[in-house]
C-alpha cells in the first residue's frame, strides 16, 4: 500500500486538470502550430493561403490575449493515463470529481461557451458538466507512479462516421470510406479543414470509434504507427485526402488533411469495422503529468499510444 | 462603406457599418471580404423557434438598431447579473436554418446573415434575392479569438432564461468584425458552389477504380459530388 506521502494530492490533481483544460482551450500545441505554418507557407492557392494565415494569426492572438482559440467549445473531455504504482488521494472517485469541477471552473473563468445540454430537453446547465459530461477515458502504464491528464476540446458536429466493412472490401473499402467522409464533411469546410484524421480499424464497433478519436486527437503531426502495414496506409490515406483538393475551409487548396493517424485492434474474423474522426483546425489538447510530490509537467504530446497501450509484442 | 484590396490574396475588401444600406449589400459579390462595425445580433435554433414557431416578437428596438444577424452563440459569460462578456466568437453551420430564412428576414428586416459555410444557391435565389439580402460566412471557422476580439461590448442578452445561454439572442457591439467571406450575393451566386465544381472533378477521378462496397447502406446519398443538405 502506498503511504500518505506517496499519494498524489487531490488539490494537485484538480490544479492539473484545470490547467490542462485551460491551456487546451487557449494554446495550440507546438506540433499543430508548426503544421499549420507549413501548410500556409506551402499553399499554392492565394485564397487558401489567406485563410491559413488567418488560422495561424488566430492561434497567436488566442495565446497573447488568453482567449479561447475557438468560439465553439466542442465537447471538452479527458484522457487519463494512470501509472500502475500511482495512487490518487481520495481514490478515483475523487479524481473524477476533480475533473468535473475543473471543467466547470475553466468554463466560467476563461469564458468558454457552455455547450453541453440535455439531448432531448436541450436544458443547458451552463458549465459544460452534465450526465456523462465531461467524458473520461482511461489507460494504464506499467512501472510508473505518475498520473497523466490530457484535456481535449474537439468540435462535435461534423467529421466522424462509422462503417462495417468486410474483408473482401480490402484497402479499397477504407479509401472509399475516407473519400465519402471527406466529400460529406470537408465540403464547404463543415469539419473545419485542414483536419487531422483518425482512422480506427477493427475491434468491435465501439472500439474502432474510440480508437479513431484517440488517433485523431492524441498523436502528434508526422507520427507513424509502429506496424509498417498501418504506417504505409497512413501515408496513402494522407495523400488521398489531399488529392480531393477541398483545402482550408473547403474553398479549394493543397492541404485538406495535415496527417492521417490509424490505429488497429484485432477484430472478428468475418468483418472490418472502421471509424473515421476528423480533428478540426481548432487543434486543442494539453497533457499534464503529475508526480506524487505534487509537481506537474505540461506538454503538447499526450504520448497516449505507448507500446504497453498498443499491446506491442502480442502475437 | 470603404473598399480596399487585401494584400494577401488580391481580394476585394469592404468595411461596412451597421445598419447596412441596401446599396452597400447590393455591391457585395461572392468572394469579397467584409469587415463590419456597429451592432449585430445572434440567432440560431432557439431564437428561430421562439420567434417564428412560437410567435414571439423581436425585442423592442432591435430591428431599428441593426439589420445584421449572426448564426452564433458566443463564448461568453454573465460576469455580474445582466452583465455579459464575450471572449471568443464564431458562427455555426447555416444550412440547417435555410428553412427559416424567408420568415426570419421578413420579420426582423435582416439584410446580412453571417453564418458558417452558407446555404444552397437555390436559397439565395428564392429567398435572399427577394429580400435584397446577402449571406456572409465566417472564415477558417475556428477564428474564435480574432472574431471575439472584435466584440467591444455585449449590449444585451435576451431570452437567456427561456432558451439557455447558448441559444439566447445576444446583441453585440462590434468593431471591424472580420474577415467575413461573401458566400451568397444579391445576384444569387454562391461562392462555395464555384469551388465545389473543381473539387467534384477531383473526386470523380479518385473514386475511379475503387471497388463498390460489398454491403451497401440503405437510405443514403450515392452521389458524392452532391451537397448533402
Task: Give your account of this protein's structure.
- The complex is a heterodimer of chains A (315) and B (229).
- Chain A has 315 residues and is an alpha+beta fold.
- Chain A has helices at 10-26, 30-42, 46-65, 91-109, 170-185, 205-217, 228-243, and strands spanning 75-83, 135-141, 147-154, 161-165, 195-202, 257-265, 272-279, 284-290, 296-299.
- In chain A, helix 2 (30-42) packs antiparallel against helix 3 (46-65).
- The longest helix of chain A is centred in the first third of the chain and has 20 residues, at 46-65.
- Chain B is α/β, with parallel strands linked by helices.
- Chain B contains eight helices and ten strands.
- In chain B, the strands form two sheets. In chain B, strands 3-4-7-8-10 form a five-stranded mixed β-barrel. In chain B, strands 5-6 form a two-stranded antiparallel ribbon.
- In chain B, helix 4 (101-108) runs parallel beside helix 5 (121-131).
Global mean pLDDT of chain A = 95
Structural class based on helices, strands and sheet pairing of chain A: alpha+beta
Distance between the termini of chain B: 34 Å
Largest interface chains and counts? A-B, 69 and 59 residues
Mean pLDDT of chain B: 93
Give the SSE order of chain B as H and E letters. Answer: EEHEHHEEEHEHEHEHEH
Count of strand segments of chain A: 9
CATH topology of chain B: fumarase
Radius of gyration of chain A from CA coordinates: 20 Å
Could you say which overall geometry of chain A the principal axes of the C-alpha atoms support?
Answer: globular
Distance between the termini of chain A: 34 Å
Count of strand segments of chain B = 10
CATH class of chain B: Alpha Beta
User: Given the C-alpha coordinates, what overall shape of chain B results?
Assistant: globular
Helix content of chain B: 25-40%
Question: Helix segment count of chain B?
Answer: 8
CATH superfamily of chain B: Fe-S hydro-lyase, tartrate dehydratase beta-type, catalytic domain
Amino acid at each position: 500500500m502506498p503511504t500518505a506521502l506517496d499519494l498524489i494530492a487531490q488539490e494537485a490533481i484538480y490544479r492539473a486538470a484545470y490547467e490542462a483544460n485551460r491551456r487546451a482551450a487557449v494554446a495550440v500545441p507546438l506540433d499543430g502550430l508548426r503544421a499549420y505554418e507549413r501548410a500556409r507557407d506551402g499553399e499554392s492557392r492565394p485564397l487558401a493561403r489567406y485563410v491559413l494565415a488567418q488560422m495561424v494569426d488566430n492561434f497567436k492572438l488566442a495565446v497573447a490575449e488568453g482567449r479561447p482559440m475557438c468560439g465553439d467549445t466542442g465537447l471538452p473531455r479527458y484522457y487519463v493515463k494512470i501509472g500502475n504504482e500511482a495512487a490518487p488521494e481520495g481514490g478515483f472517485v475523487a479524481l473524477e470529481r476533480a475533473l468535473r469541477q475543473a471543467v466547470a471552473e475553466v468554463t466560467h473563468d476563461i469564458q468558454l461557451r457552455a455547450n453541453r445540454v440535455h439531448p432531448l430537453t436541450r436544458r443547458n446547465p451552463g458549465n459544460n458538466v452534465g450526465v456523462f459530461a465531461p467524458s473520461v477515458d482511461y489507460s494504464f502504464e506499467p512501472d510508473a507512479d505518475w498520473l497523466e491528464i490530457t484535456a481535449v476540446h474537439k468540435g462535435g458536429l461534423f467529421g466522424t462516421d462509422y462503417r462495417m466493412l468486410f474483408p473482401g472490401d480490402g484497402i479499397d473499402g477504407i479509401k472509399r470510406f475516407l473519400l465519402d467522409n471527406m466529400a460529406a464533411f470537408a465540403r464547404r469546410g463543415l469539419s473545419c479543414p485542414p483536419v487531422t484524421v483518425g482512422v480506427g480499424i477493427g475491434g468491435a464497433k465501439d472500439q474502432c470509434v474510440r480508437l479513431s478519436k484517440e488517433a485523431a486527437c492524441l498523436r502528434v503531426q508526422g507520427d507513424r504507427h509502429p506496424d509498417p502495414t498501418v504506417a504505409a496506409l497512413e501515408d496513402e490515406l494522407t495523400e488521398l485526402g489531399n488529392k480531393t483538393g477541398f483545402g482550408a475551409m473547403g474553398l479549394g487548396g493543397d492541404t485538406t488533411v495535415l496527417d492521417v493517424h490509424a490505429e488497429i485492434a484485432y477484430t472478428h474474423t468475418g468483418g472490418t469495422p472502421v471509424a473515421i474522426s476528423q480533428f478540426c483546425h481548432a487543434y486543442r489538447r494539453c497533457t499534464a503529468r503529475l508526480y506524487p510530490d505534487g509537481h506537474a509537467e505540461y506538454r503538447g504530446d499526450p504520448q497516449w499510444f505507448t507500446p504497453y497501450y498498443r499491446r506491442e509484442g502480442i502475437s | 462603406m470603404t473598399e480596399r484590396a487585401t494584400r494577401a490574396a488580391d481580394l476585394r475588401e469592404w468595411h461596412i457599418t451597421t445598419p447596412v444600406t441596401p446599396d452597400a449589400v447590393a455591391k457585395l459579390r461572392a468572394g469579397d471580404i467584409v469587415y463590419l462595425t456597429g451592432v449585430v445580433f445572434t440567432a440560431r435554433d432557439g431564437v428561430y423557434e421562439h420567434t417564428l414557431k412560437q410567435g414571439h416578437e423581436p425585442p423592442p428596438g432591435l430591428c431599428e438598431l441593426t439589420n445584421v444577424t449572426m448564426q452564433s452563440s458566443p463564448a461568453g459569460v454573465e460576469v455580474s447579473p445582466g452583465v455579459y462578456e464575450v471572449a471568443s466568437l464564431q458562427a455555426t453551420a447555416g444550412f440547417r436554418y435555410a428553412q427559416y430564412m424567408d420568415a426570419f428576414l421578413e420579420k426582423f428586416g435582416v439584410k446580412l446573415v453571417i453564418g458558417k459555410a452558407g446555404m444552397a444557391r437555390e436559397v439565395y435565389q428564392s429567398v435572399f434575392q427577394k429580400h435584397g439580402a446577402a449571406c456572409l460566412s465566417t472564415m477558417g471557422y475556428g477564428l474564435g479569438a480574432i472574431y471575439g476580439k472584435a466584440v467591444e461590448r455585449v449590449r444585451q442578452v435576451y431570452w437567456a432564461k427561456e432558451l439557455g445561454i447558448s441559444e439566447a439572442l445576444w446583441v453585440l457591439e462590434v468593431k471591424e468584425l472580420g474577415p467575413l467571406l461573401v458566400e451568397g450575393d444579391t445576384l444569387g451566386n454562391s461562392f462555395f458552389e464555384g469551388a465545389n465544381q473543381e473539387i467534384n472533378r477531383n473526386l470523380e477521378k479518385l473514386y475511379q477504380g475503387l471497388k463498390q462496397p460489398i454491403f451497401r447502406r440503405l437510405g443514403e446519398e450515392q452521389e458524392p459530388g452532391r451537397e448533402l443538405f
